Structures are given as C-alpha cells and as structure tokens.
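Worked example 4.2. Below are the chains of a multi-component assembly; read each line carefully before continuing.
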Amino acid sequence: MNFSEVFKQTNQLCKVSPDGKYLATCVQYRLVVRDVSTLQILQLYTCLDQVSHMEWSSDSLFILCAMYNRGLVQVWSLEQPDWHCKIDEGSIGLVSSRWSPDGRHILNTTEFHLRVTVWSLCTKAVSYIKYPKACQKGIDFSRDGRYMALAERRDCKDYVCVFVCDDWHLLRHFETETQDLAGLEWSPNGCVLAVWDSCLEYKVLLYSLDGRLLSTYSAYEWSLGVKSVSWSPSSQFLAIGSYDEKVRILNHITWKKITQFEHPAIIDNTKATVYKEAEKRPGVGSDEMPLHNITMGATLFNTQSKYEICPLPVQIPVVKPDPDRASPKIGISVLAFSSDSRYLATKNDNMATAVWVWDMQKMSLEAVLEQTSAVRCFQWDPLRPRLALCAGNTKLYLWSPGGCVSVQVPTEGGFQVQSLNWHCSGDSLILLGKEQLCLCYMDTDQEDKFKGTRCRLLECSFFLSGLKHSQQTQHSS
Amino acid sequence: MGEWWTTETSMENYEISSISHVTMSPSRRNNLVSMYSFPLSKSSYSVISAFCTEDNIPQCISYINQELASLGLSSTCIEAISPGDTGLSTVPALNAMYELLQIHRRSMCNLEELEREQLRKSSTLEHIQMSNTRLKDQLELSIREKSGLHETERQLQLKIKTLQSCLKTEKDEVQKLQSVIASRASQYSHDAKRKEREAVKLKERLSQLLIDRKDKKLAIDVLNCLGRADGKRRHWKTTKATSSHEDEMYKSLLSDYEASQRSLMLENAELKKVLQQMKKEMMHILSPRQPSTRGATADDSQEQADLDGEAKGGDASRESLDQYCEHAREQLTNSIRQQWRKLRNHVERLDSQGTSQNQLESNKEVIPRETHEDEMERMRCEVQQCREFIHAQQQLLQQQLNTSFDDETAALLNDCYTLEEKERLKEEWRLFEEQKRNFERERKNFTEAAIRLGREKKAFEEDRASWLKNQFLNMTPFTHRRRYSSSDGQSALSISNGKIPGLACFQTKILATLCMNILPRQFLSLRFGNTEVASFAYLHPL
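Applying the procedure described above to all two chains together yields the following structure tokens:
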C-alpha cells in the first residue's frame, strides 16, 4: 500500500474521470486535472468564481464546473484546452447542475426548483421541464443512460416523468400514490423504478418502465419511515433502511420482504465477527523513537491502532437522539451493496461508530466493525468485495472477507480523512480531508507503475490482525 | 289424697286459713292444711300415730323441746301441765307453735324467694342460652359472610391488577403514539418552516426582480458547437421517433422479462429435477427396508406399489409431455410429500425400535460408532504425535541454524568440523594412495605374469604343435612309433617344430592356425585383495 503526497482541494471536489485516467480537483476557483498514475498536472483551468460543483462528462472529455452563487456553469474540454463554454442562468439562479448521460447536455435546476433547464452543447438549444420537485433525490438517470426519471409536483400531487435522454421526449407521465415523494431510483437493469415517500409515511412503490404500478410496500404506519433505499447491482434486491433501525430486503420477483436486518445495541447469538478498533499507545521513552518520529511527524497524535476480535456478546455504544428535533439521528442512513451483490454494508445513525456488513447469500450478519470515532464514509471496491471506510481521523480502514486492516495515512501535519472514493479499477483510493487530498495505491507489486513518478514512497506501518477464526468458520459450515 | 283432705276438712281449712292466710301461698295451703289436719282429724289418727301416742307424751315433749332448741327456740319450750298428765300447757305450746309458724312462714318466704330466684335464673339462663345460640348462628353467618367478602375482595384485587396492567399498556401505547405524534409534528413544523423560508425568499426575489427590471437574460456562450457523443447527426423529432421510443422501451422491458423468465424456468427445472431425484431416492430407501421392518402394514406396501407403478408410468409421460401442467406439478409435490411422510414415519419407527429393543441390535449401531470414534481418536493421536515430531524437528533445525549465527562458536565449530573433515579426507587419501600403490604393484605383477604366461603359452603352443605333429605323423601305419610318441607327448611339445619338413610344415601350419583361432580369444580376469579391479580383456599377441 503506497500513499501519494498530499494535494490541496476545496469543497471535497475531487473526481476521477469515468475512464479512470484523469483526476480532477478544484482548488478555490481553479480546476486542476492530473494524470492518475503519475499525478502530474496535465491541465489547469480558471473559473470565474469559487466552484460549488464539479462533474466529469461520461466520455471523460469534458468537465462541468458550476458556481451556484453566480448562477454560472462553465464547461472545460480536456482535448482542446482553449475551448470554452459558459452557461449563465441569469437572475433565475442555480441550485444544481449535472450532465446528461450522453455527455452533451447539461441539466440546471433553478432556484426554488422553478424549472429544470436542459442546455444542449450540440445545438445550443434550450428545453424546460416544469414543476420539478424539490426533494432528496428528484432526478435519476438509468444506468444505460437511456431514460431519465424526474419527480414532479403539480397541484399538491406527485407525478413521475420519464424522459428519453436521446431527444428529451416525454415518454411517460404518471401520478404516484405518495403523500410527499422523497426520492426515486432506477434499478440497475433499467426496468423498474423505485419511488419512496417522505419519512412521515413508510411507503415504497415500484413502477415498471412503462409506468405500471408493480407493487407497493409498507412495513408499518405512523412512525417515521424510510430513510434510505438502495438497489443491489444485480437488481435482485431492494434494500430499504428506515428510522426503526431495520433494513428490509425485497426480492425482485414477488416484491415482498424476504428478510429484515436488525441493528440491536447488544450483539449476541450470531456467527458474525465483531472487529473492535483498539488504539495502541505509542511506547514513550523507548530508545528507538526520537529521530525516526521527528521525521515522521508527531506520533503522539497519530496513534496506531489495530483491530481485535471481540467475543460475543458485544455492546455497541448508542447515542440517543433528541426526540424534539426533526430528522432525528436514528435509523439506517447509508446502505451500500458490494459490486457482486454478495455483501451489504449499513450504518445506523444512533450507533455512528459501527459499520455492519451483511452476507446476502446467507442473509445474516457477517461482520461488525466498531471504530473509536464516528464513521464518516464507506465505499465498496468497484471490483472486489472490499470495503474502505474512514472515521474522520488519520487512518484508513479496509475490510474484506479475509480480515480487517487499519492503515495509518503517513502524512505530516495530520491528515484527517473525511471521505473517500475508489478509483474505477479498484486499484487506488482517493482520500479527501478538509482541504487536502491524498491517493492510496493498493497494489504494491506493480513496481513499474511508479517509475518516474512524483510520489514519495513513505513508510507506512500497518498491523494486520483480526483474521477470521478458522474454527468459527468451520463450525458455521 | 289432697282432694280428700280438702273436702273433709273444708271447715277447718277456713278456720286455719283465716289465721295464716296472708303469708301462705295458695299452693301450699292444701299441703299445710293436710299437714295441719293430721293431728285434728281423728279419722287419720292412725296415720300419724307413728310419732306421738298417749304413752310417749313426755318423750315426745322432750324430743320436741330438743328439736326446738336445735332450731334456736330455746326460749319456748313445751311443758306438760303436770308431770304425768297428757295435757300440754297451752301458752308455751302456742308460743312454740307460733314460733314454728314464724319459722315456717319465713322458710316459706325464703323458699318462695328462692323459687322465684330460681325461676328467674332459669329464665335468664334460657334466655342466655337462646341468645347464645342465636349469637353463634350469627357468628357463623358473619364468618361465612366474611369469607365470601374475602373472596370477592380477592377477585376484585385481581381485577384491579389486570386493569392496572391494561392501563399501563395503554399508557405506554399512548406515550408511544404521543412520541410519534411529537416527531411527526416536529417533522411537519420543520418542513413547514422550510417551505415558509423558501416562500419568503421567493417573495424577496420577486420584489427584487420587480424593482430591478433589468432582467439578466439567460444565455449560453459556447466557442463552437460540439458533435454528438456517438458522432451521429441529430434526428428530427417526429411521431415515428416517438413511436420508436415506445418500441424501444417495450423491447427493453420485454427482454428483461424474458431474461428473468428464462432464469426462473431454469431454476424451476433444476428444482423439479432435484425433487424427482429426491423422490426416487426416498422410494429406493423405503422399498428394500419393507420386508425387514416389523409392523409394516399391508396398506403401506400397497401404497408403495401403487406409487411405484404410478411413478414408473408417470415419469415417462411426464418427461415427454409438457411439464408445466398444474396437475403434473401437483402430483409430483403430493407424491413427494407422501414419500417424505413415510420416510419420516419409518425413521421414527426405527428410532423407537432402537430404544426399546434389546442391547444387541442397538449395540450393532453403537459399536460401529464406537470403533469409528476409536479410530478417530487414534488418528488424532497420530496427528498430534506427528505434529510434535515436526515441531521438535523444527526446533532442532532452528537451534542448529541459530547456533550457526553465533559468530565465535560458529567459527570454532566450523573449524572443528573442517578439521575433522580434513582428517577424514587425509585418511581416505592415504588409503587411496595405498590402494593405488597396491594396484600398481599388482598390475606390474600381472603384466609380468601375463608376459610369463605369454611365453608359457608360446612354449605350450610349440609343444602342442609338435605333439599334434607327432600325432599326425603317428596316424601313419607305424604303430609302435605312435605308442612311443604318445608316451612322450608332453616332452614332444618342448622339441622345436622345425625338424619335420614338407608335410610337417603343412601340419604345423594347420596346427598354428588352430592355435591362433583358439588362444587369442581368452579373457583373463585378475583379482587381488578385496578390491575388485576391472577385468581386462587381454589379447595375447601371437
């Protein structure tokens, strides 16, 4: 595992191009494009204001930089650095901006969600979509990029509009049976649209591509409902995380619940492994320390840590949310399926230090990772069943079915990892701090990759522990 | 008796009663009268004559006096008028009588009082007894009532408890609902506030726009238009396009459905196969056991036969005809269920048999398990031993390697080892040299021997040649010569063969060729000592 040097970034805007070759970062009002392997700066663009949102086009040729304060969108070309494009929304303001799947249209949502403007970079034509809904997830593109689903609110009723991305033709327009639509998401195979209601009502509706209602699912009434929804990459399962700290899995054939995963505070009676992060105190006063540490940075602040396997029963620290506040910090807020649909990682908001990994084949709990501080972000490797997570400290954690690793990010001055993103090849990770970013390369045996690069190979010490007990697996099998 | 007296002495009654009528009780009057009438009526004289007669008057008087004295009336005594006279002095007698009457009256009064008391007391006793019984009854009643009340109280307590628990649950539910309401309310208020803020912003923006009036037009400023991502031209928006969109959409939906249906069909077929296999196996398991199990009923075997027949017939038909027929599927599942039920019953029967039967049968099953366990134990021990052995070996190896790392001793040891090796090598070298020398010697001997042998051979050949020559010559009619020459066979060999000319030359030539043919192909192998030196193919040069 090698770490690159630290670069500056603002606003957590750092994205890898879809083809995996370039890395774009925003520093104040500048857009910096680097090569992923050598980290050399290839292009440098200057925008008119501080960039609020940055996105690559699907063909990795263009980058969109949106400045919400000024209502401006600037598009930069990688091949032709002098090509420029500026979209000014005028007095109507700008709230969000995104690419269309073909990489030639830009969809801008105006302030107050008055309308969605579709700008074509091919013809300079403009189209408008009226009454878009201001909700958690109002627009979703299907994975093949052919269709776009948009939530609409007209006359106090919710509708879904399905557009063909080719020519923005309205294919279907139907009313949904929701009180207050909160979000919609296409299934990965593009044939089913999942629509869910706001948290005041637990309701998940499944519509077919042509607008027929396939099924409705409601687990309970009155209490706060759906918090997060996620499709499995194979489109077989729909995972629904709710405020009652449970995840319910629906299957794609009958759209009925096949199982539910609970997140109790005391874990008992399960074959899962519980990994607990334990901090190792640095040995104070030992002779080997001084010089090494001064060059490495203050290790007193960067304490090493390792994972220990805890015997059951295990108690997970729970933080009770304030009952008077809206959107309480309780319930499953993050759901993530691994790329082979084998594992599901969940996070319960009132147990913010724990990440739960479920095995979808056995429909049971596989592992629980308990960290010392609240987990900020986790993401699955796009190719392998490997989960990377960060907890706002200087460490990077990796889980795979074989075990768990805690890696110290070796940077001077303490780099607090706030979020992370995998490279599309699964070979490297982009770690984002508050104002910094760092790349972590996974494969250490590919030496030729680093010939003539600028990255310093710093020592990183990590402790591999917590390999699954073989006896346990034997018993379970 | 009383009546007779009353009628008799009614006159006297009247008289006496006029004296003492105040103090006498009417009930006693008759008795008194009867008592008084004794001494007065003469007719009844004989009855009372037991006490006083005319003869014993003074005795009676004294006796009466004594009695009076004992009664406490010593003052009044009865006297006779004169001794020996039958008459009494009236005054003391009357006094005595009066005293006695008083006494009598008093005792009568007492008696009356006592009787009255007694009556009163008996009545109070009765009264008390009655009240006692009444109270006892009351007490019983009240006890019963009390127990009844206790019972009702207990039931009421129970009811109270259940009601309290109901109340508690209701309270909890109410609380939960309240919390739900509270959260919903907070969510609503949050949303409402958000919307209000947005509305305010809108209003502000609107007012700003109305004031400004300088509408910044939205515009796009592109250097040059881009081509489409896929390089094709842009299509016109026609109805054909829209319908083609619809077609595409339906196509994609259909293909997805088809794919899922295919996978489901495959799964279905596999599951059916598995079920059929299970069924066959179950049937197979059940059928050979049928004759051996006790209690296998006739109808069981009947069923078995039926199902077998049906299965055999049905299988073929099922495979050939469409398998998605409801009927066929139901049949299959039903038959599987039946088989499973039978198998389960069978297993249960076996279980019960196993526990209830004698030890032998159960031991048959236990012993194999025991042996199996023994073997497992043995294998485990073996594995453990092997592991320990390997471990020990590893340790020793490690030690060796470790000890070699220690510089001084390692060097020393190495030295020792090399020294030892050197010594050994020297020894071996010496041996080798010795053997080499021996070998050389023997080789020399051998060559000398070989030379000698060669010479001897030569001589032998010459002898042989001469002998053969002689023989040949002796084959002539000169017999005595032959005899002569045969005795000198050996010595003849030593004579040189140059003596006989002509024919002898031809003979010798033959002989020589014979010798030449025979001798050169001899192999000589030499062995000396313990070591085997290579065998030599030695061609004797002739």
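Take a moment to check your reading of the output against the notes. The mean pLDDT of chain B is 74. Chain B touches chain A through 50 residues (CB under 8 Å).
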